[in-house]
Every structure is written in C-alpha cells, then in structure tokens.
Amino acid sequence: MGAHVSKQVERRKAISTEKKTLVELKQTVGSHYPGSDYHPPDRKNWMSGLDPDRIRINQIVWPGTHDSATNKIGIPLVTRPFAQCQSLSIYEQLKTGARVLDIRVQEDRRVCHGILLSYGVDVVIGDLKRFLEETDSEIVILEIRTEFGHEDPPDFDRYLEDQLGEFLIHQDDQVFSKTISDLLPKRVICVWKPRKTPQPKPGGPLWGSGYLKDNWIDTDLPSTKFESNMKHLGEQQPAANRKYFYRVENTVTPQADNPVLCVKPVTDRIRDYARMFIAQSFARGFADRLQIFSTDFIDEDFVDACVGLTSARVEGKA
Asked: For the whole model, what pTM was predicted?
C-alpha cells in the first residue's frame, strides 16, 4: 500500500512539473507565427476561401480530430468520460473546420474505442455526405481503421466504395502536388487500415495505411508528448517532398496507473498548446514538415491555428 501511494505521489509531481514546463515555454517563446492572426470568415468553407485554384494538397495544414466519432461513446456519465475524445458530431466537426477524421470500427461496423461502442459507421458516412452536399470545394481525409483487438468488418472496402464512390479521390502519388481544383468534383481521400484483410490496391479508390503515418506515444505527460511530437516531426521530410500524409496529434492519454482516468482533464494538459507547437516548429526550423495536426475536443481556435498557417503558405509567407 505504501509503495502504491509513493508511486502516485511521484506521478502527480511529474505531471505538475511537465505542466509547468509548458507554461514557462509558452511565456518565453509565445505562440506567434506566419498566419497566426488569420481567422477564416467561414470555417465551413475555409478551403474555398483560400482559393481552390491556388492551394495545393501538400500546402495544407489539415485540422484533424482524434477518435472522431466518440461524441456518443459508451454510457453517459458512466463510461463515456473514459473514452469520449470529441463532444461534437462528425457533421459539426466538419462544419467547425475539421478536415481529417479518425474513425475506429469493429466487426459489425459499429464505431468503437477499445471495448466501448458508439453508433454504426453509417452515421459517420451520413454526416460526411451531408457536409459534402452542402459545400463545393472542401476536401476531407477520412481515415477508417479496425480498432485494436477487433476483427475487420466483412467486405468493408466494398461498403466504403459503394457509399462514397462518387466522392472518392483515387490513390495517386500525383495528388499531393495538385491543387484542390485539380481534384474536384472528387472530395474524399479515404484511407482504409484493416488489421488482417488485404490493403487497398494501388491506384484504386481507397488509400492504404502507408499513406497516413504518425508516431504515437501513449503517455499522459504533456511535455513528454510535446517534445516527442517535435522530435518525430523534425525527422520527416518537408511536406512538399512527401508522398504520404504525416500526422501530429496534440493529445495526451489517460493511464491505468493514474487516478485521473477521464479523457477531458487529462488531454487538457496539452490541448491549449497547439499554437505554441506551430510556433516552436518554426523556431526549430521544420515548420515546412507540419501537415496533419489533430486534437481532442476540436474548437474554432484550433482550426484557425491550422488554417492561418495554410493561408501563409499559399501567400508565400511561410
């Protein structure tokens, strides 16, 4: 018992120290970078506002959501706080400005997060199609993966093609250097990541797992995650030279050995430092490598942070 209490005391000290580290770094370096003052007049149509004829796919800093379809996961007030990473529906996230969705599914096509379940993936597809029908030039990256510990839904690739066929941008390495206008009327880059069934075929309507990469570390320590994100970003090539999307997730994750197990208070340890992360990527010389930037509980300021840098790139200021 005494050893457990001692361990918990040390964990609390480590978290407190790391939170203080980020606060002091922000006070020292700030959160300003090219485009940081930009606010899109219409977040629902922010790509249209930056001119689809000019903006290339590899110039975009894509605002993304982590565990996107968890707004109704589990049982309210019982299990939901332990797995909910977003409070908005998929449609509301897209309307707010998110352009990358992270969807986890299990055998019966229901969305899940670990052992907890949510609605069927049809709800995700319905919200996405509603958004696409209400907009003209917004491109969305839809990542769907089979959750760890689960089996792939049967014939899921065929299901995705049937549901989204008219919108799907086929896998093609040339896509990265094209403008949004070059790709229209196609609107969705769908990355399907099965666990056991074959990966999507080259040139087909779905993109394989190698086209969306990240370096996830499972920690609830905010400065540790911040510096890990920075380290791995620095190891990437500039976005203009890559033939895949690279994601940085501005999140930390509850740990089983810590008494704070609810997602919101844990991820809030790092959530407010998204702008500082972008500013630090400039200070450390690799802002040109930032591409997909994801968060829990997405809000307008996070979207503006990403769109602002995208605007600066299009204008040749970054």
From this structure: 0.97
CB 246 within 8 A of CB 213: yes
4 exposed, middle or buried (CB, 10 Å; 0-12, 13-18, 19+)? Answer: exposed
Dist CA 20 CA 8 (whole Å)? 18
Domain housing 106? 2-314
SS3 at position 103: strand
C-beta separation of 303 from 92 below 8 A: no
Count other C-beta atoms under 10 Å from residue 211's C-beta: 21
On the question of pLDDT at 219 being above 90, the answer is yes
Residue with tokens 């490598």: 289
CATH of the domain at 249: 3.20.20.190
Each residue of 47-57: b (16+ CB within 10 Å) or e? bbbbebeebbb
Q: What angle do CA 154, 295, 92 make, to 5 degrees?
A: 70
Mean pLDDT of 15-22: 96
